[in-house]
Specification:
Blueprint: H1 2-17, H2 20-35, H3 62-69, H4 73-77, H5 80-85, H6 98-117, H7 121-142, H8 151-176, H9 180-186, H10 190-216, H11 221-250
Helix pairs in contact: 6-7, 7-8, 7-11, 8-10, 10-11
């Protein structure tokens, strides 16, 4: 046993002395530089939006303005098939009754299921995880005229959620593409995990605002229940993302202690 431990230690020391740490550092820095470009941005055209340009609802800080200026950067990080999901998808047709809202939701759900089924095996999980948020965005936008005075505010929150899901999907794609060698040496993708965690924090605040708005709205119990189900889907998505970010941050590699 002692001989085995000695041999293992000698091999590790030889690797360290041979310049592997320097090579590892260069690879890690390159990886982090590449992932550091994954920042929350505004998607080029909202899925189901009536306009391509829209105001931000998450504040007017310098950091948020900088993110707005990076429009389109996230989509360049996405695989081509996933990127196409966030391109122009037409406009969401406003509805004026509960029956029309339910029909619109069911139709959109069917379309999203078809997209998932037609995705490649490597992309299918990304599509599947993204679809609940995209369906919720569609539902909230379609219901704008049913919500009276809060319709515009709800619509803006939905647009923020759509922008956010583009950002988190790009970060997830980056995590999935991390090779075995990089993960073995450096552990999880900390930058992508931080991007996801930051988005989750913002999204939870927006979901709280959305819940408060619907609680104040003068709408029927059926409309309230229909949209509450979509809010639940948004919450579940944030829980999944939060767990992913935590797991990725905790994943350590051979040289993680050096950085």
């Amino acid at each position: 046993m002692k001989k085995y431990l000695y041999t293992t230690g000698a091999v590790a020391l030889a690797i360290a002395m041979s310049g592997a740490p320097a090579l590892a550092l260069a690879e890690n820095q390159g990886s982090e530089q590449e992932v550091s470009q994954v920042r929350p941005v505004t998607a080029p055209v909202l899925a189901g939006s009536t306009t391509a340009q829209r105001p931000s609802i998450v504040g007017s800080s310098e950091e948020e303005n900088e993110s707005a200026n990076l429009e389109g950067a996230e989509h360049a990080k996405l695989p081509p098939r996933i990127r196409a999901l966030f391109a122009a998808e037409g406009t969401t047709t406003p509805v004026f009754s509960l029956a029309a809202l339910k029909q619109s939701i069911e139709q959109r759900k069917h379309e999203l299921e078809q997209e998932e089924a037609s995705s490649t095996p490597d992309e299918q999980k990304l599509v599947k995880d993204t679809n609940p948020v995209r369906l919720a965005v569609h539902s909230l936008l379609a219901s704008k005229d049913l919500l009276g005075g809060i319709g515009q505010q709800v619509s803006e929150i939905a647009k923020h959620m759509n922008d956010s899901v583009a950002t988190t999907t790009a970060a997830e794609a980056q995590i999935q593409s991390r090779g075995f060698f990089a993960r073995f040496l450096f552990g999880g993708d900390k930058n992508a995990a931080t991007t996801i965690a930051d988005q989750v924090a913002q999204n939870q605040k927006q979901i709280d605002n959305l819940t408060a708005l619907l609680g104040q709205a003068n709408i029927s119990a059926d409309v309230q229940a229909t949209l509450t189900a979509q809010i639940t889907a948004l919450k579940d998505a944030q829980t999944r993302l939060q767990n992913l970010a935590q797991k990725e941050k905790k994943a350590w590699g051979l040289f993680s202690w050096r950085f």
